[in-house]
Amino acid sequence: MPARDETIKTKMAQFVEHCRARGLSVTPQRLAIYHALITSMRHPSAEDIYKRIRRQYPTISLATVYKTLETLEQEGLISKVTPLHETARYDANRTRHHHLICVKCHAIEDFSTEALEQLQLPREVVGDWRVLDYTVQVLGVCRECQKRERA
Amino acid sequence: MPARDETIKTKMAQFVEHCRARGLSVTPQRLAIYHALITSMRHPSAEDIYKRIRRQYPTISLATVYKTLETLEQEGLISKVTPLHETARYDANRTRHHHLICVKCHAIEDFSTEALEQLQLPREVVGDWRVLDYTVQVLGVCRECQKRERA
DNA sequence: GTTATTGCAAACATTTTGCACCAGC
DNA sequence: GCTGGTGCAAAATGTTTGCAATAAC
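^ Those are the sequences you sent over. The predicted structure of the assembly is below.
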């Protein structure tokens, strides 16, 4: 058996264990959704997962996919690649800079630092892609939200 | 007059010049939207800009704000901070890695490199934020879309 | 048997579109 | 006057919610 299948088996077993330990039901829907995620390299959307699972599992609903993704994210088993997906945000600053993103209130603050001005992204790293630009996204909690936590 | 106001004046003048050079009408709506963007540090959404402008300009419509933001982006005068905002995308890979994002088809590919494993983000840089995580977002054009361009 | 989860439908939020009117050039 | 831009309303898209039926434990 190839090493990759073994890894997937192991991950599924760990997933089941995690659910039991945290008192979450192990439903076929959850198994299918988590399986779809660990076997995809494409960072699928809820809709992508839904379409893929529906072939094997025609009664599953898109709402279940959304609810499950949220549960898995809260459990720290998966993460959203798109922390600010819900609204488009704009910037008139055309110089290289990076972003601090507050995971609580979605504030965005700019920062710059010499060390990140000209990152080297050699071919071994970026493969065949034509690189246009890059930014560092730092996820954190802004000052105001830290205050709110203490209050 | 403070240096900041001078900068804003200069930017507005350059904006007008850019529009004329490119044959775009210089309308009060466009001026107001661009002005709102260069005077905000908060990376506003279309709705934010709309609310702010409406105070001075009660007849402006949200659709105009959307259309104008798209135009300004195509002109390279502003940029979306959220290249993938239209759909939430998920990832079960819990190790540190970074993303190549195709600006054409929105494919996401992972990459890792030793140089970006443990970025130093000192207090001078991140200020009062509590940092949880970071990723580098590289914007580019994937192999398939480069092929499609040539075809 | 109890509680959490599912699936459906309806609601919601954000963004896009079609089109008549209007304003910039 | 011509062309492109605006504003409205409707549609489209992506996501969330309420709730009754169902399945996990």
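Residues 30 and 113 of chain B are 42 Å apart (CA to CA). The two ends of chain B are 54 Å apart (CA to CA).

Shout if you want it in another format.
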